[in-house]
Design a protein that fits this description.
The protein is of the alpha/beta class. The chain has 15 helices and 13 strands. Bound molecules: ligand KET. The site of ligand KET has 14 residues, from helix 5.
Length: 401
């Protein structure tokens, strides 16, 4: 028999597996609120107009070839990505202290950064928020780091457990790595205020904790690209070092193109170039060099002022639709007089609402109402439309009544 006969069947992924279950359901009222992927009011995936235009320009440019990119990826994509997250006026960029490598979307950027740290950074402990994106602990563990948690979400207030966060980071060994969601924390939708970010920054710098930012929703939280990068820019402004993983999956709708970047901000340009040389040693045996198409779309848009502005308009429209879904769901819960305080639906930001529904209530909603969501009670607001809000509100009302 097969040499793989002993292989144990693995469970479906807690997030992507929800889509697998949704696709198998033949119910006409089913709704997928699992994976964080934007859907229009008609419930369809969205390709931004500016992306279509950029692709048309690429196709029409017959001088373009399909040669390998360098190990670090498309050079102008890397420069433009650094500018996008750190700001056009970033001192770190001006002083050439940033190295940026194109990676396979946010996940690939996190993994390459983690592999680099496991090989070249003295502290192998990484503190990640409790709760966090389900893939984080697996990425860091498989890269050879040891994962610990810092308190982040307070179920009682459905807000930030700020004191718990400070206490846990204070107790962390100096030099430990700390993963920070740049904005729109997944799954809670709860972010520190600017003042709280400043306190976190001071504490982390005083203990030499190494910030590793995960920026998967820049522009999605507030609709403003600069506002959503404030946390990252505060740290970079103090002259310290940090890592930042960027994804264009959500904010440019390039999910399947796998477009992202890892940046490492260093003390000086000589260190930055040595770091880049070692990042290449991580990437080459992993996937050799990144895909050309998605990065070309992003570079085409970011380097053209008019296309960049068009992108910000479409991005704001996506953010606004999600915010209107929050208001509609909140109003629907109020209209039903559903017991409990549902104001967190409109207070939380970004793509997700952390409802506070438990595993049993979630499976009830899936079984009886064909509502698909992750078992931690997270719902992707981007998967909702005015048409499906009443159905979801009915399901939530029934689940808690
Ligand atoms: C915080 C965070 N970081 C990184 C990623 C990875 O995105 P990438 O497609 O590799 O650029 C995601 C994706 N989150 C959604 C999709 C998924 O789970 O893959 C989600 O939470 O539904 C995140 O939510």
């Amino acid at each position: 028999d097969s040499v793989f006969a002993h292989v144990v069947r693995a469970p479906e992924d807690p997030i992507l597996g929800v889509t697998v279950a949704y696709n198998k359901d033949s119910s006409p009222v089913k709704v997928n609120l699992g994976v964080g992927a934007y859907r229009t009011e008609e419930g369809k995936p969205l390709v931004l107009n500016v992306v279509r235009r950029a692709e048309q320009m690429l196709v029409n440019d017959t001088s373009r070839v399909k040669e390998y990119l360098s190990i670090t990826g498309l050079a102008d994509f890397n420069k433009l990505s650094a500018k996008l997250i750190f700001g056009a006026d970033s001192p770190a960029i001006k002083e050439n202290r940033v190295t940026t490598v194109q990676c396979l979307s946010g996940t690939g950027s996190l993994r390459v950064g983690a592999e680099f740290l496991a090989r070249h950074y003295h502290e192998h402990t990484i503190y990640i928020p409790q709760p966090t994106w389900g893939n984080h602990p697996k990425i860091f563990t498989l890269a050879g780091l040891s994962v610990k948690y810092y308190r982040y979400y307070d179920p009682a207030t459905r807000g930030l457990d700020f004191q718990g966060l400070l206490d846990d980071l204070t107790a962390a060994p100096s030099g430990a790595i700390v993963l920070l969601h740049a904005c729109a924390h997944n799954p809670t939708g709860v972010d520190p205020t600017i003042d709280q970010w400043e306190e976190i920054r001071k504490l982390m710098r005083s203990k030499g904790l190494l910030p590793f930012f995960d920026s998967a929703y820049q522009g999605f939280a507030s609709g403003n690209l600069d506002a959503d990068a404030q946390s990252v820019r505060m740290f970079v402004a103090d002259g310290g070092e940090c890592l930042a993983a960027q994804s264009y999956a959500k904010n440019m709708g390039l999910y399947g193109e796998r477009v992202g970047a890892l940046s490492i901000v260093c003390k000086d340009s000589n260190v930055a170039s040595k770091v880049e040389s070692q990042l290449k040693m991580v990437i080459r045996p992993m996937y050799s060099n990144p895909p050309i198409h998605g990065a070309s779309i992003v570079a085409t848009i970011l380097k053209d002022r008019q296309m960049y502005d068009e992108w910000t308009v479409e991005l704001k429209a996506m953010a606004n639709r999600i915010i209107s879904m929050r208001q509609q769901l909140y109003d629907a819960m109020q209209a039903r007089g559903t017991s409990g305080d549902w104001s967190h639906i409109i207070k939380q930001i970004g793509m997700f609402t952390f409802t506070g529904l438990n595993v049993e209530q979630v499976s009830f909603m899936t079984r009886e109402y064909h509502v698909y969501m992750t078992s931690d009670g997270r719902i992707s607001m981007a998967g909702l439309s005015s048409r499906t809000v009443p159905h979801l509100a009915d399901a939530m009302h029934a689940a808690v009544t």
